[in-house]
Amino acid sequence: MARTTHVKKAQQRYETVPVLDEEGKPKKVPVMRGGKQRVTKKGKPIFMTLTVVDKTKPKPLYNCSACGKPIEIGTPYKHISPKSGPYGGHKMTRHESCPGWQVWDYSNSLSAQLSRISYDFGNEIDQAESPDDVTSALSAAAESVKEIAGQKREGAENIESGFGHETSQSAELAEMADSLESWADEIEAADVPEMTDCEECDSGKKDCDNCEGRGETDEGDECPECEAGQVDCDNCDGTGEDVDAWRDEVRDSVTIVDESPV
Fold it and tell me: Which residue, 136, 234, 117, 261, is CA-closest to 192?
């Protein structure tokens, strides 16, 4: 993971311009190390150009890569500078209040792609209301794995086409594609637990606390807070099913999406 740096207040940035000498040329000074001027491998002295901030040339505000809005002066923000990948060497900024970066936000590596699939599946489970929702999430995860497998197989075929024969690299990619495809099949075939019955009620109903299940008050009047002494269970909202407990069971049993073979 790239290291996240937090900044309390965004400052106005300015362009830098070279310091000019008496002849109007950029002023250069020797680059020193250990009291001696550094030199190239060929023995040529190394110099650096002096620069200064030009406050007549303000730079544009940073943009937040999460919400797309500018990071205003004086507001807190955070940034990362990935060392490799599609954003290697580039500074990425976000508002402090916006979500942080996941590894797939700045990396196309296989591990990053598989982490994204696992993360997305976990989010789907957090919102699932029925076994059908989990089945749909499994299908989506399997399809994403198959897409990656297809990319690996295409890479193997391109290498073999270029060399005119199989190579160790193409064989490795083809083997990886096979493993990913098998894993995708296992994901699709995963068993999904049935809904969990609520342990605090009977089919979504329980005795009314106001009348203790009698349906009438001590004065013999009809209880205003229930129907025939029964009310909807608070724990399951009257469904008779404990969705939270069921989701926990799904997380514990449906772990195949986290079990990458590569």
Answer: 136
